[in-house]
Task: structure prediction
Amino acid sequence: MGPASNQSLRDDLELMEKHLEKLSTELSQCYEQIMLLYNLSTHMNLDQSCSTYLQLACDQLTQIVPVEGIAIFLEKKIEGGKRLVLSAGSGLLSIEPSMADILQMHLTAELTAGREALLDSQVDGPFKYAWSPRLRNILAVPVGPADRMAGFLVATNIQNKPDFDSTDVKLFHSVASQCAVFIENGRLFNDLKELFIGSLKALTNSIDAKDQYTRGHSERVALIARWTAEQMKETSPISEEEIHHIYLAGLLHDIGKIGVAESVLRKQGKLTDEERAVILAHPRIGASILSEIPQMRPIVPGVLYHHERYDGQGYPEGLRGPDIPLSARIIALADAFDAMTSRRVYREAMSIRRALTEVEKGSGVQFDPAVVQAFLGSPVENFWKAIQDGFIETWDYSSFEEYGIKAVGALIR
Result:
């Protein structure tokens, strides 16, 4: 084999090595892209906040496509109108947030013209649109269908090559589609939670409405129970999930009264043995109803044992002290306090001060001393006024209705 043939062979080997190196790089990039989309899929937990998921998408994307800045803008309702709000991102984005509306307008124009994305740079000529002087190139894709765009994903100034390419466009589209699915699933999930908590409240209100003196009782008990549980977090290991369960158990603590006749609930005189037996059965009936729903089982103990007493003289099982589940001990106090401060067919409502005195007297007898201490050690009078207003700032919810929706989410984690 002559020198020319040897050189030709070396050239072929060198070319093959370059092809293999290129193929290896492309396979590696493809693997990274697949892993990115897989990670986004596995982190699509409905109880995860939208901002956390979107930030994860931005962070993971920049590990594969290094850019100077990346961001996700979403439309949000603000003061009666819709605005594009920066919802996640990192780095130095060469687009001012105030230009978000203009950027979306340009993106819409590109999509209407049949293009997959807004892709603009000065590599192959002047910019198509006017941008900030520090911008070299930009890629933006819609979050959601083009005709129902929820927002957009945008990145500026790619670092490892002159410009974004078709592979980047496809990857950005895939990530934006995952984000759109998460957002839509979250919206549908929230709608279902609203429907569920609304149904629960309608059910409990129908039970409370059997007696004109107990209207709103179940919701007030739920709020008092939650308030008390939060006070106990300082000294007891109560998780946020347990507090959600305590709230829902308080809301449904009297569900077993659904089959009790109004004549019995409203009776002013002494109950007969049969009528008393019906009333005493309501915790078991309520627990039995809820036990049929697997997701409701964590709140069953609070419903079943909310009439137990700390001294063991309660019902249905005569449990004593710490043998009574904590949720039931908390609801027992909440139930009694609301009953004392509400008008009943057989007496007028107590004042807050007198009711607090009665709670203190019941410590160690009717109520768990630790629960009493937490309740009395809190600004109860301010809390009671806030219940009437329907809003407590320190709970970080715009209304008690919003908290109910959050609590329902804890049942299905």
About this structure: The beta strands are 67-78, 81-91, 118-121, 137-143, 151-158. The CA atoms of residues 391 and 399 lie 5 Å apart. The chain has two domains: 14-187, 209-411. Residues 209-411 form a domain with the Hypothetical protein af1432 fold (CATH 1.10.3210.10).
